[in-house]
TrEMBL record:
Family: Belongs to the MshB deacetylase family.
Needed cofactors: Zn(2+)
Coiled-coil annotated spans: none
Annotated EC: 3.5.1.103
Keywords: Hydrolase, Metal-binding, Zinc
Protein name: 1D-myo-inositol 2-acetamido-2-deoxy-alpha-D-glucopyranoside deacetylase
Length: 289
């Protein structure tokens, strides 16, 4: 049996560089600033991503195919902005290739993450679990939040690793979430905006993602780290243009909005909640750390 540790340790498993920021950046910054051990595992280099910097268009998969290497630097800058010192690529940098969107030819590439042997990939993550011994693991839901094959595979790998880790398994597992109430507020707030990310959508339930409020278990509020999250987003310049709706959202919803992130508890015992929904405010709630 693994020895007991008093250090708070939390592990985030994401599919591509930049995924760490959008749904969990403020949470990562909050726990890093509080002295917890924050570990990020990214499963691919994001080689198939779109490029929003014209001068770097030649890095694309169909050109020089060097985007993945470039994004290693972007990820390093993002982690620095968030205060995260411990970052690894699953199985080492380049072990698994970005699979592209569902149905893309990249889904069939021999090295793509979508085609990875589940137990082999999970074995790489088990090694990390046994080293850093997180009490809390964060990843995506079974649909990878929005159906991307690498997100779905990241979910499968993280959950399988937790099974294989035995006594080193995390005590709580969370899946990222966006409450339907927050999505509906976004639809209303952006209605009529020129950069409306919800154009043509009337009801949050019609979107291919979103979690009913009753299925959300935690809301981590870290508004003081919103600027760090925005800086991390800017670090991913090839993927997140300055005109992105993410920056508009930070402006339209007011200071601190991007500093609140939500989660579903997939495994473990919930701790004490607060507020009108009774949501946890700390992912370590109920743990003796």
């Amino acid at each position: 049996m693994a020895p007991v540790t008093s250090e708070r340790s939390i592990l985030f498993v994401h599919a591509h560089p930049d995924d760490e920021v959008i749904g969990t950046g403020a949470t990562m910054a909050r726990y890093a600033a509080a002295g917890a051990r924050v570990t990020l595992v990214t499963c691919t280099l994001g080689e198939e991503g779109e490029i929003h910097v014209p001068a770097l268009a030649g890095l694309a998969a169909a050109e020089a195919d060097q985007l993945g290497g470039y994004r290693i630097g972007e990820l390093a800058a993002s982690c620095a902005a968030l205060g995260v010192a411990d970052h690894r690529f699953l199985g080492g940098a380049g072990r698994y290739r970005d699979s592209g969107m569902m149905g893309d030819p990249a889904n069939d590439a021999p090295r793509c993450f979508w085609r990875a042997d589940l137990d082999e990939a999970a074995g790489h993550l088990v090694a990390v679990l046994r080293e850093v011994r997180p009490q809390v693991l964060v990843t995506y839901d079974p649909n990878g939040f929005y159906g991307h094959p690498d997100h779905i595979q990241a979910h499968r790998v993280a959950m399988r690793a937790a099974e294989l880790a035995g006594p080193d398994a995390p005590r709580k597992i969370y899946w990222t979430a966006v409450p339907l109430s927050a999505l509906q507020a976004g639809i209303e707030n952006f209605r009529g905006a020129s950069d409306n990310p919800f154009a043509g959508v009337e009801r949050a339930e019609d979107l291919p993602f979103g979690t009913p409020d009753a299925e959300v278990h935690a809301a981590v509020a870290a508004p003081e780290h919103q600027e760090a999250k925005l800086a991390a987003l800017r670090a991913h310049a090839t993927q997140v243009p300055a005109s992105s709706w993410l920056f508009s959202m930070a402006t339209n919803f007011g200071a601190g909005f991007l500093g609140v992130e939500h989660y579903r508890l997939a495994a473990g015992t919930p701790g004490a909640g607060a507020g009108p929904h009774g949501w946890e405010t700390d992912l370590f709630a109920g743990l003796d750390t």
